[in-house]
Automatic annotation (TrEMBL):
<dbReference type="GO" id="GO:0005524">
    <property type="term" value="F:ATP binding"/>
</dbReference>
<feature type="transmembrane region" description="Helical">
    <location>
        <begin position="46"/>
        <end position="68"/>
    </location>
</feature>
<feature type="transmembrane region" description="Helical">
    <location>
        <begin position="126"/>
        <end position="146"/>
    </location>
</feature>
<dbReference type="Pfam" id="PF07730">
    <property type="entry name" value="HisKA_3"/>
</dbReference>
<keyword id="KW-0812">Transmembrane</keyword>
<keyword id="KW-0067">ATP-binding</keyword>
<keyword id="KW-0808">Transferase</keyword>
<keyword id="KW-0418">Kinase</keyword>
<keyword id="KW-0472">Membrane</keyword>
<dbReference type="InterPro" id="IPR036890">
    <property type="entry name" value="HATPase_C_sf"/>
</dbReference>
<dbReference type="GO" id="GO:0000155">
    <property type="term" value="F:phosphorelay sensor kinase activity"/>
</dbReference>
<feature type="transmembrane region" description="Helical">
    <location>
        <begin position="89"/>
        <end position="114"/>
    </location>
</feature>
<keyword id="KW-1133">Transmembrane helix</keyword>
<keyword id="KW-0597">Phosphoprotein</keyword>
<keyword id="KW-0547">Nucleotide-binding</keyword>
<dbReference type="InterPro" id="IPR050482">
    <property type="entry name" value="Sensor_HK_TwoCompSys"/>
</dbReference>
<keyword id="KW-0902">Two-component regulatory system</keyword>
Length: 373
């Protein structure tokens, strides 16, 4: 808007000095093309660049006495289109755009040279052309450097997220091995004990077959976990303590332990509790733990956090809602806890959503019950 206003003022002054109306209209049309190109280049870089280049061509060929496109403020829109093009397309394509800009500068100075008044030395055109080359080349190089920095940042973020997902999957593998393998082992031991104490040969054979199937399942589980990743993974330096029991019955104690005079943490359960799979129960407990941790970590007290379980025959909805606290804390970079929770919930067949409203955050996990699975 500032460039457009300055252009209008300059064109009005040139008209006052005696320029023809068609020359003013041509320069104004070129300015419009330059501004349109700068806007279009944000979404369609090449289209915007071509429009901007066309506007510059009109400026160059408009026959003003001693005219140079650099006199029109709207001409600054052309380097902007080059910047946006360089930051969006491949390096090879941006080099082509830079070459087009360089040829345009050469054409500009040749036209200006041909219109040069006798009393103006010719080296002024060389100086102006050199300065324009420096500006265009500087804009192109700066855009290229910024683009590479952004690409490096995106790669680092992708690697961080991939590492976080891999780490959480390793944690899930540990839970599977520690809980399921132990449960299967106990089941097999109890079946074998029943087989020893029974007096019916057919029952003994049947129980023996079941125990053998349990051992095969145990071995298959170990083989499957081995294909998913290493059996043991070093814990993260920022990992949370794992002493919290992975059971819904532990939620009241977990909620109570987080409460303080400045942190009102309450727990409510609505509906008849239904059986959950092991992965769903782990995901529910970890969701509550992560939601409370985030609220206490990111919000200035006093803080009110409500944990609620809503049961239906098909699913359980786990909600952790906070009131936004007094203010947000500056805790540095984002962690990876929510990434791990999303992975756990997805593995359990559920969905995770995060609502960021004016009155605080709400973490909601929908997990299927065994009846709804």
């Amino acid at each position: 808007m500032v460039l457009a206003l300055l252009t209008v003022i300059i064109l009005a002054g040139v008209r006052h000095l005696g320029a023809d109306l068609w020359q003013i209209l041509a320069a104004a049309g070129a300015a419009v093309l330059l501004h349109v190109g700068a806007v279009v280049a944000h979404r369609r870089p090449w289209v915007g660049y071509v429009i901007g280049a066309l506007g510059m061509l009109v400026l160059v060929t408009t026959p003003f006495l001693g005219w140079s496109p650099t006199m029109l403020p709207s001409a600054a829109c052309f380097p902007l289109t080059l910047w946006r093009l360089t930051s969006r397309v491949s390096v090879r394509s941006s080099v082509v755009a830079l070459a087009v800009a360089a040829l345009g500068i050469v054409l500009t100075e040749l036209v200006a040279w041909a219109r040069l008044p006798p009393d103006v030395p010719g080296w002024t055109r060389l100086v102006e052309g050199g300065l324009l080359m420096l500006v265009v080349g500087g804009v192109w190089l700066a855009a290229l450097l910024v683009r590479r920095r952004h690409e490096a940042g995106r790669r680092a973020e992708s690697e961080r997220l991939a590492a976080a997902v891999a780490d959480e999957r390793a944690s899930i593998r540990r839970d599977l091995h520690d809980v399921i393998a132990h449960t299967v082992t106990v089941m097999v031991a109890r079946i074998e004990a029943a087989a020893v104490t029974t007096t019916d040969p057919a029952t003994r054979r049947e129980l023996g077959d079941i125990a053998e199937a349990g051992r095969d399942a145990h071995q298959g589980l170990r083989a499957m976990l081995a294909t998913l990743g290493p059996a043991a993974v070093a814990p993260r330096a920022d990992s949370r303590p794992r002493e919290v029991p992975i059971a819904l019955d532990a939620l009241p104690d977990l909620v109570a332990s987080a409460a303080s005079p400045l942190h009102a943490v309450t727990f409510a359960e609505v509906g008849e509790r239904r059986p959950l799979s092991l992965s769903a129960e782990v995901a529910a407990v970890r969701t509550v733990q992560e939601g409370i941790t985030n609220a206490l970590r990111h919000l200035e007290p006093p803080v009110e956090v409500t944990v609620r379980l809503r049961w239906t025959p098909a699913e359980v909805v786990v909600e952790v809602r906070d009131d936004g606290g007094k203010a947000l804390r500056d805790v540095g970079s984002q962690g990876t806890g929510l990434i791990g929770i999303e992975e756990r919930v997805r593995t359990a067949g559920g969905t995770l959503s995060i609502d960021d409203g004016d009155d605080g955050w709400m973490l909601r996990a929908r997990l299927p019950t065994k009846e709804g699975a």
